[in-house]
Specification:
MetI-like fold; globular; mainly alpha
Length: 276
Amino acid sequence: MTAKLLRTKILPHMVLILFSIFFLFPFVWLVFTSLKTSNEIFAMPPRILPEAFHFENYLAALETVPFPRYMLNTLVICVICIVGQLFAAPLVAYSISRIPWVGSKIIFAIVLATMILPSQVQLIPQYIIFTKLGWVNTILPLTIGAFFGAPFYIFLLRQFLLGVPKELSEAAKIDGASEFRIYRQIILPTLKPALATVALFTFVGSYTDFMGPLIYLNDAAKWTITVGLQGFQQDHGAQWEQLMAASTIMAIPMILLYFFGQKYFMQSGSAFTGFK
């Protein structure tokens, strides 16, 4: 009994604890470094804990960088992208999974094929298009694509919908419900776990996006938090304690998102397995 308990319970948990410590160590080092002085950061041998906690590093970082403005710009882009994905992706997934029409499989194959293309390949053509439209230095290049649905989210929702019994739609059609009413009153409530997953993934992708804002946002007043942090590093590269404090502030929303939305992240697997 003791050997079985050791093999099935204690050893797996010990391995998981070791891996968690390994992955958490960079963040712990980031937080403690943000509370050190410049001399302590480069002290040899390095020390994890500072001699004294210098919380003024955070105040200095907030005074040096307009974090409220950068955070507001980032949240505006995140909200618009979430609204766009929740509007477009379910519609496309519903049309190619629940409505029989000629060419639906071909369209779905094309959608999957676009996932193979690296973003670097699309970068120059997209920039030329947005330049000719006069959208450079606006948030439109960062948000307009969400209203056409991301291929991965379309695929995610389609896999979920394939597991929803078609008898639900057929019963509604017998009662005289239109296709849009079936989608609005039957399919969307069923899709809530998958839609929450799409919203969370969209937020994470938009919040951590660096390349898009760097390319399309030229005005510093329109920068997102990632580009603003890069600008802080360029202007105050030697002040590592403030840079670490700024990085810690940037990580706070992601940590809160994990704690409040972890159950939806765990349910993302059910979006692939289907309806229960």
